Amino acid sequence: MNTQLFPQIRPLSDLRSSIGEIPAFVDNQQTPVIFTKHGRGKYVFISMEEYSELVSRRELYHLLDDGLDDIANGRTQEFSAAMKEISRKASDECVSN
Questions:
Q1: Left if phi > 0, otherwise alpha if psi is -120 to 50, otherwise beta: which for 20?
Q2: For 22-79, how does the pLDDT look when each residue is reduced to its tens digit (9 = 90+)?
Q3: Judging by DSSP bridges, how do beta strands 8-11 and 40-45 pair with one another?
Q4: What's the start-to-end Cα distance of the chain, in Å?
Q5: Of 33, 38, 89, 95, most Cβ neighbours within 10 A?
Q6: CA distances from 81 to 17, 67, 78, 84 (A)
Q7: Which residue has the higher pLDDT, 60 or 3?
Q8: Cβ–Cβ contacts within 10 Å for residue 32, how many?
Q9: Is the pTM of this model over 0.90?
Q10: Helix and strand element counts for the chain (H, E)
Q11: Is it the case that residue 18 has pLDDT exceeding 80?
């Protein structure tokens, strides 16, 4: 994600008058546009690339959190046993496809 440090902040009313400019601005400046309503952030306009990266990071953080929870609750196994289980599951998937 190559966004600038500071996003552009605009009132929501600008969305109606500037809808054609916003996608080009986001693409050219590589920065999100935050729309405010009554002086508070309400919506964010970002590129699809940035959105995909944010979703991927969020999914990764959830997986890491699940893994840390497994460790904290003793749901672990030896590396060799884990690799055997992964290999077995991969083989089972290949056979079923």
A1: alpha
A2: 888 888 888 899 999 999 999 999 999 999 999 999 999 999 999 999 999 999 999 9
A3: unpaired
A4: 36
A5: 33
A6: 61, 17, 5, 5
A7: 60
A8: 20
A9: no
A10: 4, 3
A11: yes
Q: Are 76 and 70 a contacting pair, CB within 8 Å?
A: yes
Could you give the CA distance from residue 41 to residue 33 in angstroms, rounded to a whole number? 10
26 burial type by CB count under 10 A (0-12 exposed, 13-18 middle, 19+ buried):
buried
Tokens coding 32: 């999100």
| Coil/strand/helix, residue 74 | coil
Q: How many CB atoms lie within 10 A of CB 1?
A: 13
Nearest 5°: the CA angle 36, 39, 42 is: 30
Neighbours of 22 (CB within 10 A): 16
